[in-house]
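As noted in the main text, all predictions were made from sequence alone. Below is one such record, for RAB6-interacting golgin.
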Amino acid sequence: MSRGKDTSELKPRDRNLSGHISNRDETNEPDSKAFVRDSKNEKEEATKFRPNCDGDDDVFSSGEEEAMQRTAATRTCQGTSGRRLSSLDIYQLNHKEENVNYVLKGKESLQDVIEEVNEFEKREANELTEEQRRRLASNQKRAEVMIARIQKNNDKRRESLLRDLSEAQSEKLRHQQNIKKFGGLTREKRARLKQLLMQKAKEEFRNEQREQMRARENHLKKVCPPICTDNMDDAQLLELVKALHVRAVQCEAEKLEWEERLKIQADEIHALLQEIQEKQGRFLIPVLRKVKRK
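Prediction:
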């Protein structure tokens, strides 16, 4: 670059730098001292024109000024232009690109690291506060109690249903057995039939008693015919009484004889039944009498 470059196309900052360069050439001062003086003037002008700026990019520390002086001295020695370095130039000089190594340092693979990150995220998502844990525990306990209560009610209902079904089945089976036993008759029909049979038996018993009374009357009429005592005297009545007395004694003797015969016949029947039971192995249990101890 030549020193006589046109400054019309330069920015205000470049114009100031060009002015400083021209002044430095006129006064023939050393490059380093002129550079320091120009930087101080530029700082003052920058503070005048930008008093409300939040961050002053052109304000440098002592270390930066020394670095700028060294770079300016090297540039003047090398024959370059004496233009003041901007902050961008300083950043480019001091910045060093660092090679970022994305290879994992260690024996762990990328899949292990991803799994560890996922586990950490899951752990963070599953973490609950103490109150939430207490509430969750109480809700879980309440749910368990409700489930147990519902299960108990269901068991009771199932047992009652099974009991009812078993009772109904047993009643139905008993009813069928009774129907088969009594010829297909129900309980009501059996009661009705029993009532009819009792009525018929009572009627038959009454008829038998009436027939027995008639037979007795007929026999008495044959044995003791009616006697007419209207035309009898005392002697005839006395003979008739004696004859009736003899007849009564004879009838009494016959009655005693028949009673004795019936007793003997009952004893024979009882003895025969006892023999039959002994042959079948069924013995009569004797009646034991209580004896008082002395």
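Residues 234-274 form one domain. The helical segments are 12-27, 31-49, 62-78, 87-94, 110-126, 130-181, 187-223, 234-280. These features were considered when defining construct boundaries for the mutagenesis experiments described in Section 2.9.
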